[in-house]
Structures are given as structure tokens and as C-alpha cells.
Design goal:
Strand order of the largest sheet: 3-2-1-4-5-7-6
Structural class: alpha/beta
CATH superfamily: Vaccinia Virus protein VP39
Radius of gyration: 18 Å
CATH class: Alpha Beta
Number of domains: 1
Shape: globular
Oligomer: single chain
Distance between the termini: 40 Å
Mean pLDDT: 90
Helix content: 25-40%
Length: about 250
């Protein structure tokens, strides 16, 4: 089924959860091993994505409490836990959380990773609880003002938040979304400049946004991708070009 409009309310949430339940059931059968190679932690993960600024912004996570919103299958929770953090992960997909528990168990980190099915707009965590909140490709699935309000509530004073999100203005990605809407989940819509303003206002403008994937949309062949990322770093630093990037990294301080 294809969805070409944003959906709101309980129906949208049900469709989102069902969509991801079906996706993870196909990608992560019970027979699949979920062991991540030793030595790979959160800095390895972000550096491999060409987003070393995230690791630099986060700093040392040892002993810190980290929440990953929309954690999906929980592989990033494992990367953070390997860095010494105590990690909480939530998602609206029960199937994703079940796989995330397998990830934690297979990597022997179930004592440091706490998982639950939950809406981001109504988190059950205490006020001022987390040192950091992380989300990847998740805010554009939410009621953004409500989600950001909840994220700000559970984040400690002086805490940090990092979001990696699609932006709406890249012409090729925009065209692909129009041609292949079935590749995307129901109700999602990439962030716009007005959405970035909401995030900035919620964090009193203590926000830095860095653009990625202007030219380097695909990672193969690897050598071409590497050079395109270098060019992207230059182009995305030019005023006005950042909004054309397919992805933005949002780094905020409370």
C-alpha cells in the first residue's frame, strides 16, 4: 500500500507500528545472529557514517544515562552501551523492541540496555533524567512540538541532544519520494526549515545544524563516496546550501 499524505492520530501510529513490525520480521528472522564485531562502539558507528562531529559533540559517555528515541532494532543502543553508558531505548514497534532485546542479549549487554514500547510524544521517564537523548530518522515521524517538549523534559540541565534527520529540499530525494512512496512508512514527512525553528526555540537557540548527503547520496562505490563526502563538507558549509542537503545532524544543548 502506498501513502502519499501525512496521517494523524491513533490510525497513523497503528500504521507506523505495523509497518515496522513487518519490516523487522523480514530483516531479522530468529535464526539471524545479531552479534556486533568486538571493539565497535558509538564513535566507530558515527565515524563510519561520516559524522565524526557527533562523536566529538557527545564526548565520553561512560557512566552517563542515554535515551535513544525510536531505537528500532537497538543496534545503536549496543554501540552506546559498549562505550560505558547505561542506555534506554523506546519505539512504537513491538517487533522492533523484540529484536532490540535480542541485540542486547547477543552482545551480552542486557544489564545496561533497557527497552520499552512507547510513543515519543508521551514518554514515561522522569523529568531531568538523561544526560543525552539521541534519535535517528525519527523526529519526522512525530508530532514534532509535542515530541521536542517531551525530549526537553526528560533531559537533564546541561544535557545534550543529537538528531539525524532527513531534510525536505533535496531535489533528487524529493523526486524519488514522489515516484516510490511505497518505500516510506505512513505518515512520515522530512523536516522543513520551520521544523528546525521549532527545535531551535525549544533549546533557546543552543543548536548547531550540519548538512550531509548533498552529492554523496549512496555509499557505493566506496572510493567515489569518500571523495563526494569531502566535497559535501565544503558545499554544505556555504550559506544557503545546507537546506539542499538530504540529511542534517542537529546538535542541541539544554
Amino acid at each position: 500500500m502506498s501513502y502519499t499524505v501525512s496521517l494523524k492520530g491513533e490510525k497513523a501510529e497503528d500504521l507506523e507500528g505495523k509497518h515496522w513490525d513487518e519490516v523487522v520480521a523480514k530483516r531479522y528472522p530468529p535464526s539471524r545472529s545479531l552479534i556486533i564485531a568486538p571493539g565497535r562502539d558509538y564513535c566507530y558507528y558515527f565515524n563510519r557514517k561520516g559524522m565524526g562531529e557527533v562523536c566529538e559533540f557527545i564526548g565520553d559517555v561512560k557512566g552517563k544515562k542515554i535515551l535513544e528515541i525510536g531505537c528500532g532494532v537497538g543496534n545503536v543502543c549496543v554501540y552506546f552501551a559498549r562505550g560505558g553508558a547505561e542506555v534506554w531505548g523506546c519505539d512504537i514497534s513491538e517487533g522492533s523492541i523484540q529484536v532490540a532485546r535480542r541485540f542486547a542479549e547477543d552482545n551480552q549487554l542486557e544489564d545496561r540496555i533497557h527497552l520499552g514500547v512507547m510513543k515519543i510524544e508521551s514518554l514515561s521517564y522522569k523529568n531531568d533524567f538523561f544526560n543525552m537523548v539521541f534519535g535517528q530518522s525519527i523526529l519526522h515521524h512525530t508530532d514534532l512540538p509535542r515530541a521536542i517538549k517531551e525530549i526537553h523534559r526528560v533531559l537533564k540541565e546541561g544535557g545534550r541532544a543529537v538528531f539525524i534527520e532527513p531534510l525536505a529540499y533535496h531535489p533528487l530525494v524529493w523526486a524519488y519520494r514522489k515516484v516510490r512512496p511505497q518505500r516510506y512508512s505512513p505518515g512520515e514527512k522530512p523536516l522543513r526549515i520551520s521544523d528546525l525553528k521549532i527545535i531551535r526555540q525549544s533549546f533557546d537557540n543552543n543548536v548547531k545544524v550540519k548538512g550531509h548527503r548533498l552529492l554523496a547520496l549512496y555509499s557505493h562505490p566506496a572510493i567515489v563516496y569518500r571523495y563526494l563526502r569531502i566535497i559535501d563538507d565544503l558545499l554544505c558549509s556555504i550559506p544557503g546550501m545546507k537546506r539542499l542537503c538530504a540529511t542534517v545532524v542537529i546538535m542541541a544543548n539544554k
